[in-house]
Design goal:
PilZ_domain; mainly beta; globular; cyclic-di-GMP binding; PilZ domain-containing protein; Thrombin, subunit H; six-stranded antiparallel barrel
Length: about 90
């Protein structure tokens, strides 16, 4: 049984992830909830690492940029890449 607090919805967006060293990579998200999101990365990340995320959402016909702090919660190897799960901190 899944222990998720919030329901996930499909959410395909370009996401800019910046780690604590200032290294930025551009990822593709796959799903989103009120507490976190999943993304696909070409590079692994450290579980527990704090990162900044930047992506755009459309609300009431307007495009807005969100800047969120998050923590890497899991890193799963996938076909030629990694699936990252993050939880939002703000």
């Amino acid at each position: 049984m899944e222990k998720r607090q919030h329901r996930r919805i499909p959410f395909r967006r370009t996401v800019h992830l910046v780690n604590h060293r200032g290294d930025e990579q551009v990822l593709e998200s796959s799903d989103f909830s009120l507490s976190g999101m999943a993304m696909v990365s070409q590079r692994p990340a450290q579980v527990g690492e704090k990162v900044r995320l930047r992506f755009r959402v459309n609300t009431l016909g307007e495009s807005r940029e969100l800047n969120l702090q998050a923590e890497i919660r899991h890193v799963d190897p996938a076909a030629n890449n990694f699936r990252l799960g993050v939880s939002f901190l703000n």
